[in-house]
Amino acid sequence: MIIRDATFVASFQNEKSCPKDGLPEFAFIGRSNVGKSSLINMLCDKKGLAKVSNTPGKTQLINFFNINGSWFLVDLPGYGYARTSKTTKAGFQKMIEDYLLKEKIW
Asked: Which of 30, 59, 60 is nearest to 50 (CA)?
């Protein structure tokens, strides 16, 4: 598939706020600082589309990117190395679990 158009849609604090328009979603999940956001930029050939940082844990929301107007790439918060409080890490875990437990993901 050729990605002709990739645009940032929005960032969401929880699964309930995420788009519900029925478009397919492909989510990136993994440890903090492994390059999920960088991979999105590379796949879309659009530097700066997804924000990247050398500091673990900078992605703290569910970030949606519309691809060719027909599906979404989703950048989920990382886990493991983020330098945040235990409460914030627990919030990340709940956010990821809620997102992944949506019926359309499995």
From this structure: 59
